[in-house]
């Protein structure tokens, strides 16, 4: 059972465009990176053509039409981090070299 105090990411995707795999991959990436900081990731199928949106609570952090396509994993994780854990270090995604 998820912790209601932790934010939940919702990914809405167009079923007609076959974007389920993309949505689930992005959800997996977020759960791997933000384990312990997220209450979960919810995938929401949509019959509205071209839908692909990612939100945390009521805040839309990515919308395919508004933001011009799909986020790369770096942009997605950065936007999620900025919303839920601004001090979190994303390691190499933040441009750090392995020591």
Automatic annotation (TrEMBL):
Transmembrane segments: none annotated. Coiled coil: none annotated. Gene3D superfamilies: Glutaredoxin. InterPro entries: Selenoprotein_Rdx-typ, Thioredoxin-like_sf. Keywords: Redox-active center. Pfam families: Rdx. It comes from the Bacteria. This is SelT/SelW/SelH family protein. It comes from Tritonibacter litoralis.
């Amino acid at each position: 059972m998820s912790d209601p105090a932790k934010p939940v990411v919702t990914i809405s995707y167009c079923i007609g465009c076959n974007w389920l795999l993309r949505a689930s991959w992005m959800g997996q990436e977020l759960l791997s990176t933000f384990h312990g900081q997220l209450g979960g990731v919810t995938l929401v199928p949509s019959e509205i053509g071209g839908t692909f949106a990612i939100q945390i609570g009521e805040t839309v952090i990515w919308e395919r039409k508004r933001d011009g396509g799909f986020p790369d994993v770096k942009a997605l994780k950065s936007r999620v981090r900025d919303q839920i854990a601004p001090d979190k270090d994303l390691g190499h995604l933040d441009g750090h070299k392995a020591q």
